[in-house]
Amino acid sequence: MSINPTIGDKDILQRRTGANPKYNGVQAVVDSGMTTELAHYMRSNIVKTKRQPGELFKRLRTDAIAAFLRRQEPKSILEDGGFARPMDEYGGPENAFDNCATSYLLLDCREVEQYTACHIKTALHYPKIKLHHSTNPFLPEMYAYKNKTKMCIVLYDLEEEAVLHLANTMFQKGVDNIAIVAGGLREFAQDYADLLTASPPVPIFPRDLRLKRRAEEVTHARSEARTTMSHKPKSLSSSLARSTRKGTF
Question: Which CATH number fits domain 43-72+99-212: 3.40.47.10, 3.80.30.20, 3.40.250.10, 2.60.120.10?
Answer without folding.
Answer: 3.40.250.10
